[in-house]
Design a protein that fits this description.
- It contains 6 helices and 5 strands, in the order H-E-E-H-E-E-E-H-H-H-H.
- It has 210 residues and is an alpha+beta fold.
- It has one domain: Roll (Ubiquitin-like (UB roll)), CATH 3.10.20.30.
- The chain has a 5-stranded mixed β-sheet, with helices on both faces.
- The longest helix is centred in the first third of the chain and has 16 residues.
- The relative contact order is 0.11.
- The structure holds FE2/S2 (inorganic) cluster (FES) (2 copies).
- One FE2/S2 (inorganic) cluster binds next to loops.
- The site of one FE2/S2 (inorganic) cluster has 12 residues, from loops.
Length: 210
């Protein structure tokens, strides 16, 4: 054993540990990234678990928002947690239940599967944005008229799907409604009344462009 590896009884445990940590840091920092002087800057505390944020401009329900968010934030979490638009629901968070359905540029989208950063400059519409002031959207009204919900957790996603479906010129038969809204699950099993509500709204809205 060489002299430098030999245990030195005059070195305290504290001195030994400090030396080991300093050596570990020196070994793990590439030469080009080492701090130029001893006064290294303190790490910026992470927000939402990320040390890095990015600026994103979103247009939600016609309102522009300049946000600073975690680049990994989904559109769903950004709507709910950053913009407090909690009408859009998180069910599975894996693209399988439809509870998080919103419109992106008029088309149905599962907000749990999209990054907010992907939506820069897009027109995003949530359930909060479809009524006309105090006047409910005809699809919202039809859901109330036909008891198209029980607990209501899936309802905003169902309504956002139905609104887009009708605009696309679909929902002309019950079979079509069932098929094209099969991605919107309802744990309460309110499907028969959801179907009636969508058919009723379709009859009133067809060709109106709403
Ligand atoms: S929460 Fe997005 S599909 Fe279920
Ligand atoms: S009304 Fe309860 S999940 Fe659909």
């Amino acid at each position: 054993m060489s002299d430098e590896n030999r245990f030195d009884p005059n070195v305290t445990r504290r001195e030994l540990m400090a030396g080991a940590v300093a050596a570990g840091v020196a070994a793990s920092v590439p030469a080009g990234l080492a701090f130029a002087d001893e006064a290294a800057p303190a790490a910026v505390p992470a927000v939402g678990g990320s040390a890095v944020e990015m600026g994103v401009k979103l247009i939600v329900n016609g309102q522009p928002h300049a946000l600073s968010i975690d680049p990994r934030a989904t559109l769903l979490d950004t709507l709910r947690e950053t913009l407090s638009l909690t009408g859009t629901k998180k069910g599975c968070d894996h693209g399988q239940c439809g509870a998080c359905t919103v419109h992106v540029n008029g088309e149905r989208a599962l907000s749990c599967l999209m990054l907010a950063a992907q939506c820069e400059g897009d027109q995003i519409t949530t359930i909060e944005g479809i009524a006309n002031g105090d006047e409910l959207h005809p699809v919202q009204k039809a859901f109330i008229d036909h008891d198209g919900f029980q607990c209501g957790y899936c309802t905003s996603g169902q309504i956002m799907s139905a609104v887009a479906l009708i605009k696309e010129g679909h929902a002309t038969t019950e079979d079509e409604v069932r098929e094209l809204m099969s991605g919107n699950l309802c744990r309460c099993g309110a499907y028969p009344n959801i179907c009636k509500a969508v058919m009723d709204a379709q009859g009133k809205l067809a060709g109106s462009g709403i």
